[in-house]
């Protein structure tokens, strides 16, 4: 059980490292504007797709095998749902839009594919699961430090979800930055949760 929990933690943090490095070095990718999911498009799209699949699978497996060690059955279920939503995000990529990949019109299509719509649904589930899991942890875990940290994470991740959602709808030039900050806060917490369980 313990090795799988550590694998899940490392995969959460590696997910952040992958999109940071890949985003900074990807030709034509507007790091501040475009979302992490856009990195799953184009010739190097396999890098981000693999990151979605590996991280999601590891998180779901960690939640399953470590359900008792996580400290709460509800917490384990929500973390597992988060992992499965990441897998779905990798299986169903978003559509090209808003200038990426290079050569794509700098607009939002009026019609999107069914894959894109499934990707959107999976993304909402993943981003909502993190603050819900953190809130569950704030109530379930006995350590005061973890209660405070989890409550803070729930507030930041929940606020980040709302801020990114609004920025995305408005095609804000800072939408990608808001999303990446929200991911960094949430994925760091999930990784540390697995370390605690291990």
Automatic annotation (TrEMBL):
Record lineage: Bacteria, Bacillati, Actinomycetota, Actinomycetes, Micrococcales
Transmembrane segments: 47-66, 73-92, 122-141, 148-165, 177-195
Keywords: Membrane, Transmembrane, Transmembrane helix
Species: Isoptericola halotolerans
Record's protein name: Uncharacterized protein DUF998
Keyword Transmembrane helix (UniProt): yes
A Pfam family annotated for this UniProt entry: DUF998
């Amino acid at each position: 059980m313990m090795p799988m929990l550590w694998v899940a933690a490392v995969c959460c943090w590696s997910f952040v490292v992958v999109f940071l490095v890949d985003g900074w070095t990807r030709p034509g990718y507007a790091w501040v504007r475009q979302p992490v999911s856009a990195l799953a498009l184009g010739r190097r799209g396999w890098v981000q797709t693999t990151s979605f699949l590996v991280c999601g699978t590891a998180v779901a497996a960690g939640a399953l095998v470590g359900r008792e060690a996580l400290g709460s059955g509800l917490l384990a279920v929500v973390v597992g749902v988060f992992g499965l939503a990441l897998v779905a995000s990798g299986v169903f990529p978003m559509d090209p839009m808003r200038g990426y990949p290079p050569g794509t019109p700098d607009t939002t299509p009026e019609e999107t594919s069914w894959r894109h719509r499934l990707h959107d649904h999976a993304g909402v589930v993943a981003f909502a699961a993190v603050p819900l899991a953190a809130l569950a942890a704030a109530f379930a875990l006995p350590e005061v430090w973890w209660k405070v940290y989890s409550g803070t994470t729930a507030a930041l991740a929940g606020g980040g979800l709302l801020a990114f959602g609004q920025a995305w709808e408005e095609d804000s030039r800072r939408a990608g930055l808001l999303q990446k900050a929200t991911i960094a806060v949430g994925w760091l917490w999930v990784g540390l949760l697995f370390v605690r369980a291990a």
